[in-house]
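queue> pop job 88
queue> type: inverse folding (structure -> sequence)
queue> payload:
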């Protein structure tokens, strides 16, 4: 059997764990691992043969049949991925920032099924597959998600009495935070994920700028605002929603007060996604949404699908029809930064 040549871009939290998982997987026999692109080739990595595999020279990427991009950012990561796609390779990526902000460049390859991106949203918990597959048979009414592990860890720790700074440091220590954690706490990471899901499942023309403008994070939430909600039996979480707006599908990200027992109310890096569709009704997808192992699991799942010759998720040709009225959805209470009087 001819082995598939695989290049890994990034050997950090996700990339190192991905290589470790792959090396222990039976499918490793079907893969020739060409190399792992990093910034610092001297730093020890937790996988076998790291010294021979890591490199700072991206030249090896040109020989790959499959490029696994877990490097992050919207520059080099996307440039190398798009070059590989243009010469016929397949890409597996967990990079929602690049997919969202350079979506038009990725779109022809997404349409061709040559981009796999399950781990870009909710890590190894499957959401892209279900939304573009089994759930596509229902007309979408709304989508709400708790999609950022860092914000969830921070808010849950603050619920337990921690300061904002201590709670954020904890999320970074656990490997949940983006390289630049302001992307998490300002809501931009959740907005990237929401836009990607929206384009893959609701409307391929959903505008990133619109979602970005309607995004408010948790960085300025006063502890008193959280305490006031707790007294009302509610807890604050960062919720990303795709709903019927004045001009069509609209995405928004903001802190919301959820009553105890609400399906979106999760702790730690557990993420949750609530899909409402007609005629199916309400579906809840819930599971780990960040961290090296959880994300590498999803990336490896995509790589295995690639090795089997299966296509990635394809965006719809046109927007899903709009619901008749916003009443089909539940209202969610946005929380202001300061405590209400
Ligand atoms: N961490 C998570 O929980 C999670 C969850 C879902 C999706 N993701 C996505 O997965 C991707 C990777 O995240 P991560 O947490 O693994 O990030 P990370 O720990 O910061 O790792 C990034 C890796 O890329 C390498 N790199 C960065 N810039 C480079 C450059 N200019 N040239 C060469 N190598 C470069 C780094 O090299 P050095 O190691 O030498 O610095 C590092 O190995 C991101 O797109 C992120 O959004 C992460």
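queue> result:
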């Amino acid at each position: 059997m001819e082995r598939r040549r695989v290049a890994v871009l990034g050997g950090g939290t996700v990339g190192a764990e991905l290589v470790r998982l792959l090396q222990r997987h039976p499918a490793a026999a079907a893969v020739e691992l060409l190399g792992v692109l990093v910034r610092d080739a001297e730093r020890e990595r937790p996988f076998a043969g790291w010294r021979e595999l890591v490199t700072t020279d991206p030249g090896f990427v040109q020989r790959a049949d499959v490029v696994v991009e877990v490097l992050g950012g919207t520059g080099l990561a996307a440039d190398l991925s798009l070059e590989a796609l243009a010469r016929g390779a397949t890409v597996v990526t967990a990079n929602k920032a690049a997919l969202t902000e350079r979506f038009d460049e990725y779109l022809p390859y997404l349409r061709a099924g040559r981009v796999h991106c399950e781990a870009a949203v909710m890590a190894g918990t499957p959401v892209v597959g279900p939304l573009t597959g089994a759930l596509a048979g229902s007309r979408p009414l709304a989508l709400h998600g708790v999609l950022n592990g860092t914000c969830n860890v921070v808010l849950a720790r603050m619920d337990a009495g921690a300061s904002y700074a201590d709670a954020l440091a904890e999320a970074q220590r656990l490997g949940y935070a983006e390289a630049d954690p302001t992307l998490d706490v300002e809501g931009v990471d959740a907005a990237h994920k929401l836009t990607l899901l929206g384009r893959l499942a609701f409307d391929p023309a959903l505008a990133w700028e619109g979602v970005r403008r309607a995004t408010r994070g948790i960085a300025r939430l006063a502890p008193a605002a959280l305490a006031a909600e707790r007294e009302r039996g509610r807890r604050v979480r960062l919720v990303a929603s795709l709903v019927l707006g004045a001009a069509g599908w609209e995405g928004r990200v903001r802190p919301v007060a959820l009553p105890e027992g609400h399906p979106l109310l999760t702790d730690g890096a557990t993420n949750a996604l609530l899909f409402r569709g007609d005629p199916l009704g309400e579906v809840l997808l819930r599971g780990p949404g960040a961290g090296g192992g959880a994300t590498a699991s999803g990336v490896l799942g995509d790589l295995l699908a690639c090795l089997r010759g299966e296509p990635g998720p394809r965006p719809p040709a046109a927007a899903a029809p709009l619901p008749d009225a916003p009443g089909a959805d539940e209202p969610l209470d946005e929380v202001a930064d300061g405590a209400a009087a």
